[in-house]
Amino acid sequence: MMREWATVVTWQDGIATLHSEVKTTCNSCSARKGCGSAMLNKLGPKNAHVMQIASEKPLQPGQRVELGIRESSLLGSALLVYMTPLLGLFLLAGLFQMLFHTDLAAACGALLGGIGGFIVAKGVSSRFGDREAFQPIILNVMLPPDALRVEQESL
């Protein structure tokens, strides 16, 4: 099971809105100055993922929750997103090459097949994305931010 921590933004009627920050591995690598990926991470957007998940337990804003998703559903999603456009690219490129016998036709077929593959992947993912196996679940809930107070006695 893949695990990730998220922060509760709101909780209403059994639906929790969660905020999860995008993580990169650039902070743990020692080759930051000479790495192209580190430069791209600095230039790219600093987006966070916002999602809504069903939660029977009432949650408070600021509370941290651990989310989990099955590896099989994650691998299946990656396979769908990457392989469907690639398959469409090769099939239509080959078909256009056989029909028209030119490289320009093969390139146009590859472009159409790749775009068609993305459209098919989007349609299939929207149909299967609502299934329970593809939804993240809440594994652990930390204490609310105001639940634990430490008072210091003065001597």
What this model shows, in words?
- By secondary structure, the protein is of the alpha+beta class.
- The protein has one domain (3-24, 39-146).
- The protein contains three helices and five strands; from the N terminus they run ββαββααβ.
- It has helices at residues 36-43, 71-100, 103-128, and strands at 2-12, 15-21, 48-54, 64-69, 137-141.
- A five-stranded antiparallel β-sheet has the order 3-2-1-4-5.
- A hairpin with a 2-residue loop joins strand 1 (2-12) and strand 2 (15-21).
- The mean pLDDT is 86.
What structural category arises from helix and sheet content?
Answer: alpha+beta
Please summarize the sheet with the most strands: 5 strands, antiparallel
Give the CA-CA distance, first to last residue: 49 Å
Based on CA inertia axes, which overall geometry fits? elongated
User: What is the number of independent domains?
Assistant: 1
What is the radius of gyration?
A: 23 Å
Helix content: 40-55%
Transmembrane segments: 74-98, 104-121
Protein name: SoxR reducing system protein RseC
Keywords: Membrane, Transmembrane, Transmembrane helix
InterPro entries: RseC, SigmaE_reg_RseC_MucC
Overview in brief:
Pfam families: RseC_MucC. With 155 residues, the chain is α+β, with helices and mostly antiparallel strands.
Which features would summarize this protein structure in a list?
155 residues, alpha+beta, 5-stranded antiparallel β-sheet, 3 helices, 5 strands, elongated
How is this fold's topology laid out?
Layout: E1 2-12, E2 15-21, H1 36-43, E3 48-54, E4 64-69, H2 71-100, H3 103-128, E5 137-141
Antiparallel strand pairs: 1-2, 1-4, 2-3, 4-5
Helix pairs in contact: 2-3
